[in-house]
Specification:
The chain is 35% helix and 15% strand. It is an alpha/beta fold and 443 residues long. Bound molecules: magnesium ion (MG). The site of magnesium ion (MG) has 4 residues, from loops. Magnesium ion binds next to loops.
Length: 443
Amino acid sequence: MLQHAAGLAALGAASGPAEAAAQSRSAAGVNTNSSPSDLKITDMRACTVAANYDYPIIRIDTNQGVYGLGEVRDAGVKGIALILKAHLLGKNPLQIDARLSQIRPFAGQGRMGGGYSAVDMALHDIAGKVYGVPAWRLIGNKLRDKIRIYCDTTGHKDPKIYGKRMADRKKMGFTFFKMDLYTSLVEDRPGAVNVNGVATEKGLGYMCEYIAAVRDAIGWDQPLGADHFGRLTVNDAIRYARAFEPYQLAWAEDFVDYRDWRGLKQISDATTTPTLTGEDAFGLEEGFQNLIDNQAVDLIQPDPETSGALRETKRIADYADMHGIPTVLHFAGSPVGCMASVHLACTLRNFVVMENHAVDMPWWQDLVTGPAKPIIQNGYIPVPDKPGLGVELNAEVIKEHLRYPGYFEPTPMYDDFIVSGFRRVGPWPHFDEDGKYVNAVTY
Ligand SMILES: [Mg+2]
């Protein structure tokens, strides 16, 4: 390797200064296809895969051939990323914090966090490729080599059949489980549901039969979460949570809206059933800080495609860790966002488990090349060591599953500013992008 570097240095000495600079970058282990200080964003394009949910996938191109992939939140739309294009064109993608702080005002909660999140993924993909390191290395250290996965499982009104479905998940190698416990499972039974569609004490007894059946099928010692109870008041949620206590759930999810941290705190304080929320929250300050500061839930569950992807979700999880709150990752998108989330997950001190919503879709993992296949191996996803996200698109398979015609078509309609023109500036005195005061008037 030293010999190789010396050879390159000699070559550099023999040619012009640009080549010499490129050679010294090569000797430093930097991708010679890129000149980091001259790297500029030239384009953002997208396509939408129609799957169990829509997967809007974006690509950020640069002036040096290096590009980055990202994904908007499942069931979101590509436009929420593309409206950010004008804020990124001509800028250096390696200044990740600067790029992200510029678009942060345009990130919202729920699917509206998906544009910011997709851009974050693409910037880490580009930077990883340029510096020849996996994306996780740009945000922290790899604390685990494989990421534990839980998956959704379709429920059934017959507890025995539901139990068998969960047992089949265990046979696939999963070591962490979650069941959907809709109140509607018991609504046909006399006296089970009141006029508000909420389970009565009798109905809660029936709902617990499903938990018992699943516990008998997978084992009472296995971690088991539960989700989707329906619209509950704080008092009803407390009744539900207390009824579930004998089954020692790993968590009960989204009893009330995640923004109601006071209600969640009341529920958490009234039960030993662990509470969890966060799949629709963006940002630490915007979405998670109240939940964490007030110990309103026992666990948080950001979805990296809404919460701000690698960099912001690391912040959120680290802040939660400081307060003794573990982090679960929600996820229901394509392998692009999945692998971005794997890079994130391997760096989190307080990581518990990450979701996958596509274990029953045979072509899900064929959408990409790069990661080891099968992507989920015995209930875990190995952490890739390839530069960037380590994912390339399989164009042929994606084109078979497009929501709309068009595969990364030009997007000139997004070249101009749409959500804000604040940075357009002009010949008058102003602070520029780097905070320098320019065009000052002198007398
Ligand atoms: Mg959920």
